[in-house]
Design a protein that fits this description.
The protein has about 140 residues and is an alpha+beta fold. The protein has one domain. Helices cover about 25% and strands about 35% of the residues. Strands 6-7-4-1-5-8 form a 6-stranded antiparallel beta sheet. It is globular, with a radius of gyration of 14 Å.
Length: about 140
């Protein structure tokens, strides 16, 4: 049976960049740490591996907003935290991260009412305290 759940990609943007992100257009990403929240209710572990491959330049399919960001050579995934209980907690987790970060408006949330699913943060340390477990 496939693992299902919600995940947080802990992303580091090495230097200030500007990227065209699909229909969102050109977005500026100042250097620093970011957290992207996503969910996979069919196959969580293959989704996480896909993101890792994308960030290493080993996957070239663009399906989600995060694909555009991860493909930039100045961007890397530092770690991944997840909840594999089968529930879609994406918006609830994004709301908690919003309390600690600055949103990239409309990023990754075209199928919900959230402000964003990508936040610039000071650190990733609070994710473990939210009950998420480290994948990588």
């Amino acid at each position: 049976m496939p693992v299902k759940g919600t995940y947080c990609l802990c992303i580091n943007v090495e230097e200030d960049i500007s990227i065209k992100v699909g229909a969102l257009g050109e977005i500026d990403f100042p250097s620093g740490p970011y957290i992207y929240v996503g969910s996979a209710l069919n196959s969580l572990l293959p989704r996480l591996e896909r993101h890792l491959k994308n960030s290493r330049g080993e996957h070239d399919v663009t399906h989600w907003h995060i694909d555009y960001l991860l493909r930039d050579p100045n961007v890397s995934i530092e770690s991944i935290y997840m909840n594999d209980n089968g529930e879609k907690l994406e918006c609830a987790i994004a709301d908690k991260i919003a309390e600690r970060g600055e949103p990239t408006p409309r990023f990754g949330c075209s199928d919900c009412r959230c402000v964003s699913h990508l936040y610039s943060v000071d650190s990733f340390s609070f994710l473990k305290k939210m009950g998420l477990k480290k994948y990588v």
